[in-house]
Structure formats: C-alpha cells, structure tokens
Amino acid sequence: AAAEHTRAQHMVHDSAVATLMLALAHVGARQLGDAARELTRAAGLFDQVGDGQYRARVMLAQADLAAQRGHRVEAAAWADSAADALAEGGWLIPLAWAKLRQADLGPAGQTAARLADAGGLIGQLSLPELRYAYLLRLARLDRLEGREEQAEARLRQAISTAEELGASLPDPTLRAAFRAMRLDAHDEQIGRASCRERV
C-alpha cells in the first residue's frame, strides 16, 4: 500500500524505498518472481533519483534472491558489485554487510580471508548487529575446519552480544525481535552437541 500511495503521489524516493521493502518481504516469503519484479522496479527508481547507496542495497537484495534460486555465481557477482559501489561511495555500514555476504557467497577457499577483511571494518564500526553476524560466521567456519572449542566460544560471544543489545532497546517489541536473532547461534550450538553425541 505504501509503494502504491507514494507512486501515485509522485514521491519517487519514498516510492523506491517502499518498493525495496516490498521486494525484501517477497524474498523472505520466497515469492521469488514477485521479488525480482519489485527489485527491478526499485533499481529503476533509485537510478531516477541518483541514490547510489540504495541502488547498491538493491544489488545486495538481488544477491540474496539469486542465492535463493540456487544461482551462487550470479549471487556472488551481485554481492561484489554492491560492495564495490558502497566502497566507492564511502557508505561503511552497508559495505560491512556487503563484505559479509561476499564471504557467504564467494569461493570456499576465500571465506577466511573475506571474513578477516570484513572484521577489520566491523571492528571500527562497533555495531552489535554486525558483530553478531560476524561472530556467527566465524563460528561456522571454525566448525567447518574442526575448531570446535573456538566455535563454541564464538557462539557464546554472539549470544552475549544479542542479549546486551536486546536489553538496551527501549521498546519491548524491539527487544523481543532482536533477541530472536540469537536463535541462529543457539541452533549452531545444538548442531555442535548433536555432532558430539554421534561421535
């Protein structure tokens, strides 16, 4: 409704943002055809108003869409394009997210190096949301490479980060939503326990 209203009122930038949010909702619901259509529309609107940062955010969404479709090479290319655009514009927070997606989608042999690259920027920004996402990826890499104790320590750090930020949010709904993030880390811990039991 917001996308339609802002479009009808010729509020181009607001319409672009609403259209991107709609596309992300479609991605989350795995309505991939609808997501692709809305992402194309959002990209055109951001181009129309010259918003390079949000145009790059559309690229990150296109990377997620391609990954859901199983097109990993295409997804990695979108993530690389987004990171290049964000670095050129100096938009550091979305750039950090783009670097994490590059680590997710790039060749397996480059994961550690890409995470190290992302970690330097994330350390400078000191944002708990980014730190949580970074620690979770490091823990998964540790598990993959057999460093179980280090993986456990990182997962505990990730959960602690989510708890601290969740407690600082003023609204109970926001606190509950953010604390739900830690479920990924808990799932990883359960996975570790299951592996130990099988051994």
Could you characterize the architecture of this molecule?
This protein has 199 residues and is mostly helical. It is 84% helix and 0% strand. It is built from eleven helices and no strands. Helix 2 (12-28) packs parallel to helix 4 (52-68), helix 4 (52-68) packs parallel to helix 6 and helix 7 (111-125) runs antiparallel to helix 8. The mean pLDDT is 87.
TL;DR?
The chain is built from 11 helices and no strands. The model has no long low-confidence stretch (mean pLDDT 87).
Biggest sheet details: none
Spell out the helices and strands N to C: HHHHHHHHHHH
What class do helices, strands and sheet pairing give?
Answer: mainly alpha
Shape: globular
Oligomer: single chain
Alpha carbon gap, first and last residue: 53 Å
Q: Give the helix level as a range of percent.
A: over 70%
Proportion in β-strands: under 5%
Ranges where pLDDT stays below 50 over 5 or more residues in a row are none
Number of DSSP strands? Answer: 0
* Helical run tally: 11
Rg from Cα = 18 Å
Mean pLDDT level: 87
